[in-house]
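stuck on this:

***
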Amino acid sequence: MIDPISWSYSGPYIAAALACGYLLGSIPFGLLLTRFAGLDDIRGIGSGNIGATNVLRTGRKSLAATTLLFDAGKGALAVWLGNYYGPDIAIVSGLGAMLGHLFPIWLRFSGGKGVATALGVILALSWQTGLAVLAVWIAVLSLLRYSSLAALVASLAAPVIAYLLSTPQIMEFCVIICALVWLRHIGNIRRLIRGEESRIGSKSSS
């Protein structure tokens, strides 16, 4: 591995890591996989989102699971590639992947909500933190069956968990991730407050 570069001279590396992470993160696996499976455009189904939760509304659980794995995988891959140039660049690359998933240039900057990609990034940065965040997400989802609420709670827990199990840099990154996830879930938050949010397995869209 190349020695971590000096942060004070890393401008080109930061730009390259953001760009490469963004391009990797912008691959819309939910849209691509549903099209390859011969289904209608996922953006015309349910919430119109390209993530795994909306893919699940097609009734294809295996396709939703594959979408989840691929979206998480692209986040993890971005970190793995960035880590070749040091842990700071790995974080920047992971942030790029997150932004790419949220705002993909190929889809007019209208992407997913970033939950799976964020999880993949955090797992790659600190597997202990990632597994703990995943456990929170699974627990909330299993108990209440609200995908959005599980994402919101897990993202809130991420900085706290990172503070306990990881480095200050990863904790700060998790704060950014939390802010992005909450911003992308504003509509879901409003529906949760009104009691109108749909649960996993229900037929109503959200």
